[in-house]
Amino acid sequence: MDTRVDFLRWLQNDMAFNILVNLNDPADIVHASGVSRFWRHFVITNELSKQLFLRKFPQLSNVECIIESKRRSTDTGSLGGAKWELCKKEHSVYASLLQALNKSTLSSRSCIEKAVSATSTDNYPLESIIKTLIPRDRFNDTGSYWSSAGQNNPEIPETLIYKLRANVCVITEVKIQPFEAFFQQGKPIYSAEFVRFRVGHPNSASIKEKELVHLPLPLPADDKFVWTYTSQFFPMVQENCLQEFKLPEPILCIGGFLQIELSGRVQRQKSDSLFYICVSHVRVIGHPLFPAFDLEILEPSGNVLLKYYPEALRQTLQKTSDSESNASARVLTLDEVLWGTDGLAQFEWNYDYVYDDDEEEEEHMGP
């Protein structure tokens, strides 16, 4: 005779919830929901997957609602059919999202798609933010870098904004290389003192559709975004190298845009005694979660609608597994590069391009 006892049935609901809500591994929640029908019902109705997700990403509590592209068979249980179906849907979405997040941190790739804007540019478009997408400090026999405008006050910050490869991305680290002015006496390095990062989405769908089409923008665009996450400040060293800024925990970017804030100017330019910040290259490391997850900005509230496509989850996880092995063969491409008012030029490059590190500029130019 089977005498097994389900201890969860013997506990009061509050006590059982206080025990299971402390599960920190998404796999543990999935395993708990598979113990029995009673456990599954308890896990789903108490939104344990959602609770874990919001503990990891509290800045995303403003997600208004979730759409799952395919409806699945209903099991009303002890709840009304509509409420039970809603609970099941949210459990499925948050559990799948947590699975994708855990998987994507195992391998990573560059997540930047386009440069959007900078708070200031000293010599636009020759020193545009678009230059930071080139993984070299020299391109076509000239310096390749973004330069801020000069300032008397070294405390005035600068920001750079980038569009990521998908509306929903996991970000694990950001890499930044300050620019060494090899054509100036002493080869000064125009780094910042500190850096921090924000992720978010446009204020409205109309801004994304109308104002964020032809990139990069010639003017600052910081007021066009809602930032849902802000990192701590990281110290930057005054060295000509690709510096890694690893986030304490992977962050989920809902909206597909990242802002880099550069604070503290450490280098004056001798010719005008002004402080500048110059960056030669930026990389954002993580993994896009499209096509399994996408979003839509709701009007007029500006809130976020998260979309989940379960049939694409396997494809997304497979891309995550394959991305690291294919990274060395990846060729970086810029579709649009702005060269003043004459229009757009197209070019591409790869990491095997050979540069002469000893070549010098014939024409002196400053940041």
Q: Mean pLDDT across all residues, rounded? A: 80
Give the quaternary arrangement of the chains. Answer: single chain
Helix content: 10-25%
Helix-strand string:
HHHHHEHEEEEEEEEHEEEEEEEEEHEE
How many beta strands in the DSSP annotation?
20
User: Kindly, what is the distance between the CA atoms of the first and last residues, rounded to a whole number of angstroms?
Assistant: 83 Å
Number of helices: 8
Query: What CATH architecture of the largest domain do you see?
Result: Sandwich
Describe the structure.
The protein is an alpha+beta fold. The protein has two domains: 7-104, no CATH class; 109-299 and 332-348, Sandwich (Jelly Rolls), CATH 2.60.120. Helices cover 22% and strands 31% of the residues. The protein has helices at 7-10, 13-20, 26-33, 37-45, 48-56, 81-104, 205-210, 313-326, and strands at residues 63-68, 109-110, 112-118, 138-139, 142-143, 146-147, 158-164, 168-178, 192-202, 225-230, 234-235, 243-254, 257-265, 267-268, 275-276, 278-288, 293-297, 304-308, 333-338, 344-348. Strands 3, 7, 9, 10, 11 and 13 form a six-stranded antiparallel sheet that branches. Helix 3 (26-33) packs antiparallel against helix 6, helix 5 (48-56) packs across helix 6 and helix 6 runs parallel beside helix 8. This is F-box protein.
Short description:
This is F-box protein. By secondary structure, the chain is of the alpha+beta class. About 20% of the residues lie in helices and about 30% in strands.
What keyword list fits this structure?
367 residues, alpha+beta, Jelly Rolls, 2 domains, five-stranded antiparallel beta sheet, 20 strands, 31% strand, F-box protein, F-box-like_dom_sf, At4g00755-like
